[in-house]
Amino acid sequence: MAATDIARQVGEGCRTVPLAGHVGFDSLPDQLVNKSVSQGFCFNILCVGETGLGKSTLMDTLFNTKFEGEPATHTQPGVQLRSSTYDLQESNVGLKLTIVSTVGFGDQINKEDSYKPIVEFIDAQFEAYLQEELKIRRILHTYHDSRIHACLYFIAPTGHSLKSLDLVTMKKLDSKVNIIPIIAKSDAVSKSELTKFKIKITSELVSNGVQIYQFPTDDESVAEINGTMNAHLPFAVIGSTEELKIGNKMMKARQYPWGTVQVENEAHCDFVKLREMLIRVNMEDLREQTHSRHYELYRRCKLEEMGFKDTDPDSKPFSLQETYEAKRNEFLGELQKKEEEMRQMFVQRVKEKEAELKEAEKELHEKFDRLKKLHQDEKKKLEDKKKSLDDEVNAFKQRKTAAELLQSQGPQAGGSQTLKRDKEKKN
């Protein structure tokens, strides 16, 4: 019997029975809390927005500390993601906080591909977690989860509408991360303009099909407050680490010539609402949504690309082993096919090379024959020329001999004539 069938029968045969007395498993929540507190928590925030919208300042204000970081410039050639991890402690609860900022976002003339480095970074964190899950020896309880749990998208306080860059980026990210849109530096616009701006942003997000994070309302303990806060999205926030004395208290505020804007005054901005929803009420839900929704979607698509499926063509459940075997056989078949193709290609290449070599050998033989004939012709010409030169030398030698003979005969004939004349004179 298959393991899936056994599991199904076990689930169908579950009954509810009463207890005769106290057993003790009602302490499981306390055990879980104690274990979680001892292990600590992690939370990863992605801050997306143009340079100068106060992303770093808002993070400092949210967590009531001063995070170290270098200010970004507007001269970046492209979008870069800068990640910083901090260990925070509040009471006896430890939090490993990772803040990822998009350096240079929106600073380029061509903003067409500005969202790509962000998408690649989020996918890289999903891939790292998936690779850890697929290991034979996993250490997920000590593995530092770097998946992005919340994306704070900073919108410039223009008071008009969303930029096309904002819409495109949020559309690309909404299936990968929990997006919480916020209007940065909201003290730059008036109350009436801010209300209209929020309505305009919400309308544009809906009309363009952008899915932002909705605070959960299925839990009765937080359903009312979350439902109310969903109506306030996007939050209009102000960040400041400067403390001013207002009345008898020191409060975070921004001082202007016309007055003071209090960061934690809900009549001035939505900072308190953002902090309540992000950290104090829904942090665990953001972590859960990241794992159960966004990561599961990435994992499912990735495994389907690898050939793993839950059911066969007949809608019958597949076991992992069957899927692995089917994929392995498919891979071996493809490997053999490629091996045969490579062998055929190799044989074809060898034949082509042999033909090229034969053609080259034939050309070399023809060239050798031409050179040999040319050499023979040149040799014959030289032999003929040598023979002609030998004949000329012999003729020259004969003429020279004749001339020498004539020269030797000339003096003898002259001497005899002189003796004859002398005898005639004496007589």
Task: Give a verbal description of the structure.
By secondary structure, the protein is an alpha/beta fold. Helix content is 53%, strand content 14%. The strands form two sheets. Strands 2-3-1-4-5-6 form a six-stranded mixed β-sheet, sandwiched between helices. The termini are far apart. Belongs to the TRAFAC class TrmE-Era-EngA-EngB-Septin-like GTPase superfamily. Septin GTPase family. Residues 321-399 form a coiled coil.
Topology:
Layout: H1 3-12, H2 28-39, E1 41-48, H3 55-62, E2 80-90, E3 93-103, H4 116-133, E4 150-155, H5 164-173, E5 179-183, H6 191-207, H7 220-230, E6 235-236, E7 243-246, E8 249-256, E9 259-262, H8 271-281, H9 283-305, H10 320-426
Parallel strand pairs: 1-3, 1-4, 4-5, 5-6
Antiparallel strand pairs: 2-3, 7-8, 8-9
Helix pairs in contact: 8-9
Question: Order of strands in the sheet with the most strands?
Answer: 2-3-1-4-5-6
Radius of gyration: 49 Å
For the record, the CATH architecture of the domain at 36-306 stands as 3-Layer(aba) Sandwich
Terminal-residue CA separation: 169 Å
Biased composition (Polar residues): 406-418
Subcellular location: Cell projection; Cytoplasm, Cytoskeleton
Domain Septin-type G: 39-305
GO molecular function, one term: GTP binding
